[in-house]
Amino acid sequence: MSAFLATLNRELRAYFFSPLAYIVMAALLLINGFVFWLIVSFLSDPRAAVGAPLELFFGQTFFFWLVLLFMTPVLTMRLLSEERRSGTIEVLMTAPVTETQIVLGKFFAALAFYIVLWLPTLVYAGVIARYSSVDWGPVASGYLGIVGVGSVFLAAGVFASALTRSQLVAALVTFMILVPMFTFGLLENLFNAEPAKQAFGYLNLWQHMDDFSRGIVDTRRLVYYLSATALFLFLAARTLAVRKWR
Amino acid sequence: MIEARDLTRRYGEFTAVDGLSFSIEEGEIVGILGPNGAGKTSTIRMITGFLPPTQGRVTVAGKDLSRDSVAARGALGYLPENVALYTDMRVSEYLAYRAMLEGMGRHESRGRIGEVLARCLLEDVREQIIGTLSRGYRQRVGLATAILHRPKALVLDEPTIGLDPKQIVAIRKLIRELGRESTLVLSTHILPEVELLCDRVMIIDRGKLVAEGSPESLRATSTAAARIRVVLKQDQPEAAGVLGSLPGVSSVRDVGEGGFEIECLADDDPREMIFRAAVERHWVLLELVRTQASLEDVFVRLTTQEVESPLDVDSGRAELSDGTEEVAS
User: Do domains B2-75+151-220 and B223-292 have the same CATH topology?
Assistant: First the structure.
């Protein structure tokens, strides 16, 4: 437990003290702000269909996915690859710690920072609440979806970071895992036969976020996020345990 | 304290460590000596649990390093060859992080961090960012980390490499002090360091243990235990032959300008014969000195056999000259 907390603590510090984190944060706010403005100005047109702006904001635009697919690899790429590149892994893994403690410590630091990155978007809900009414249920489930999908993406990034000593390679591998994961789900639309449609539908992240933003919390999706996160973290810990390099 | 049985490590076709067995008792200071590429670092990495052995097993303080890994690693303090630290942290922050990683309580660690900072002469830089520290300071931060949790056994891989002479003296002094408190394993290719610090030496070459014992006993058991230096006033062409034929002399080497290096067995003393031989032939003797073989002789002898094998030429031999250089300086 103490090794987990030590790792979590150290990685959180590293996030908040690195310029990269602030660049990601600024980019995220810039894009989100633009998207929010776009949605609000679209809906305020009297001819527009009736819709809740926050529903659209959470996952119903392509921007959301673009941001997520590019942002998460950048957040996780350093975590384990840098330990290997600099050689700090040697004193880390000869301390009385387990691979699982290290991987979990790093993952939760990334997840915590990711959540902090999304916190400023609560302001949008506040803005809407001031001028109109907000249905807080769907807002909460929307954030739940963001955390769920994010945790899968970040776990994949932690795994990719365990594979290599190069941050760039780690980011690219993460991207190569995430893009098929995301597009596989979209294949749902190509099938009409039931089993295939259902199977791909289960993986359709776009559809997941669509439901979450409407306030539908489907436990199958939560199970999917949790199990995919656990799988990637398990793979990361195993990769770390097989220290065959050098 | 540290027990290795039949330790083997292969990297593909290459065998870095080949069936090494040794046991290090509590309180001992043991030096692992060998030319670079001899398998020192691989051995060290296997006894600290960083590198899993291809074969064989290690126990530390009675705990098996592969089965009871966390407990075994907890008994160890380790300073790797390349001291890698988190360069974005302050010295005190880093030590606090390490204390937490080692499972030390907050109260315990606060006192202990102050102690090791003082011990390793780091008090001036405790609030400095590690990335801005010089090599010598980083080495000391690494050492402070290694002793932080009061390990039963301390393993140091080339602790003085890359330091300036003044820093080397300081680190050696610290190592000698630490050796009084815990079992200490030290890997190095610098011979005086071993003579200075260690109770026992293990010489490793091409992954095998080639000799073991105290520095004194290693010198004594050497096949060429004694060496005699002879300097004649003038170069005598027949001198090498004459000296070589004297009883008790095992080899003669002409070092030029009338000088000769003679090797003989430890029990023999052919100096009288050399003197008589010189007088008979009217040679003027300028020097006739007997010296005990140094550990360096033992080392060179043990690690340079079969020089013909290609592996030696590009790894072992090249590093060796590096080792002797440091002896000379």
Answer: no
Q: Is the dihedral of CA B209, B213, B216, B219 positive or negative?
A: negative
Give residues 77 to 116 of B whose Cβ lies within 8 Å of A.
Answer: 78, 80, 82, 84-89, 93, 97-98, 100-103
For residue B112, the model assigns a pLDDT of 93
**Residue A95 CB: number of other CB atoms within 10 A?**
22
Which of residues B7 and B192 earns the better pLDDT score? B7
Q: Strand, coil or helix: what is B25? A: coil
- ipTM surpasses 0.90: no
Contact present, B300 and B313 (Cβ < 8 Å): no
User: Is residue A85 situated within a structural domain?
Assistant: yes
What CATH code would you report for B2-75+151-220? 3.40.50.300
Q: DSSP H helical segments within chain B, as ranges?
A: 40-47, 69-74, 91-101, 106-119, 135-147, 165-179, 191-197, 215-221, 239-244, 271-280, 295-303, 310-311, 317-328
B265 close contact with A: CB closer than 8 A: no
A96/B contact by beta carbon, under 8 A: yes
Q: Phi, psi at residue B17, to the nearest 5°?
A: -130, 130
If you average pLDDT over every residue of chain B, what do you get? 82
Of the partner residues A2, A88, A97, the one whose CB lies closest to the CB of residue B84? A88
Domain ranges of chain B: 2-75+151-220, 223-292
The fold of B223-292 is: Alpha-Beta Plaits (3.30.70)
Q: Taking phi first (over 0 means left), then psi (-120 to 50 degrees means alpha), and beta for anything else, what does residue B25 get?
A: beta
